[in-house]
Design goal:
Length: 342
């Protein structure tokens, strides 16, 4: 669809970024302003004059070097803390020439020291860039898995369905009579189920007009089109950051008893793959939570570490005990057996 780049997640800020000659993204003042206007940072009616003034100064010059004394004047300490966190995040994403380099650096060294909500927004615009102008609706929905937590439901017929967790929670509250419904839910009383559309051939073109509602359910069973689209998204993600071309396909099991490398796409899958690799058994409950296995092969063996050159890399994704899928796309950058960092 030719206008997908305009209709895909318009509030994320991708349109405010620029590209360097290599095709990587450059952070602009306008993009920093998009981050500043997030509800966690924008002043509210009860904000003090110092908070409002600081926010206005930053909107005018998002690279402004604020001092500790500036934030000390803000009466609402939570607001001041949020602004300090944003300033640290701003400095992290401006520390390198491109957003790609800054994103990779977020996960190195001592680890992430910025809020997941901001990291997810950076992931979102990077994914949008990688998808390009001609992405298909299924690819866009599959890409949501990289920056939006999914609530997994396994139906009686064995269908594995993924719905956006935040959307499910919001709909459950709305259909459960607001705060009363939340209290009932906390008490273990089930609320009316959430009825959302499953993305398929007959309705996939409606994705563009509702992309920021995150309200289309995806089927994650092997052989389903969305899983194939997910594989293509992961391939593009790796190629963009590393310049290495790979091919990813699904697998029903790992038959290679001498496998040499694996990467979990989330914390649950990483733990399970590590246990299996070390010869430990995993119980039925953990097995039930494994959603999909993949095999990744490099097109050029020279892109891999010499000691594992030409060997397949096994990937997996799994839900946690609360049936949530929280993919960490940075795992594919940090943990693949790359001969070099692009």
């Amino acid at each position: 669809m030719s206008d997908s780049s305009q209709s895909l997640w318009p509030q994320a800020g991708y349109a405010q970024l620029k590209k360097d000659p290599r095709g990587h993204l450059i952070v602009t003042d306008d993009f920093l302003r998009v981050l500043l206007l997030r509800p966690e940072l924008a002043p509210i009616e009860s904000s003090c004059k110092h908070e409002i003034q600081i926010h206005e100064r930053l909107l005018e010059n998002p690279r402004l070097d604020l001092q500790t004394a500036d934030l000390a004047q803000v009466e609402d300490r939570d607001a001041a803390d949020n602004m300090a966190v944003w300033l640290r995040f701003r400095n992290r994403i401006l520390a390198h020439a491109t957003l790609e380099a800054s994103y990779w650096a977020l996960f190195e060294g001592q680890g992430v020291d910025v809020p997941p909500i901001l990291v997810n927004q950076i992931t979102q615009v990077l994914v949008q860039h990688i998808l390009g102008d001609d992405c298909a609706p299924l690819e866009a929905r599959a890409a949501e898995l990289l920056f939006r937590t999914q609530k997994i439901s396994v139906l009686e017929d064995g269908s594995v369905m993924a719905a956006d967790h935040e959307t499910v929670e919001r709909h459950a509250l709305e259909s459960g009579f607001g705060s009363l419904g939340e209290l009932l839910k906390q008490g273990g009383i089930p609320l009316r189920s959430v009825d959302l559309d499953v993305i398929q051939d007959s309705n996939e073109d409606t994705y563009w007009e509702r992309s920021e509602r995150f309200d289309m359910v995806a089927c994650l069973n092997l052989g389903q089109p969305l899983i194939d689209a997910f594989c293509r998204v992961l391939e593009r993600w790796i190629a963009h950051f590393t310049s290495a071309t790979v091919r990813i396909v699904t697998a029903r099991e790992i038959e290679d008893v001498h496998w040499v490398w694996h990467v979990g796409l989330d914390a649950q899958a990483s733990s399970m793959l590590n246990d299996l690799y070390n010869g430990q058994s995993i119980d039925e409950d953990r097995q039930r939570r494994m959603l999909c296995l993949f095999v990744l092969n490099f097109d050029n063996a020279s892109d891999m570490l010499q000691e594992v050159s030409g060997k397949p890399v096994y990937l997996a994704m799994a839900m946690d005990p609360q049936n949530l899928l929280k993919i960490k796309p940075q795992n594919l950058l940090l943990n693949l057996p790359l001969a070099r960092r692009s």
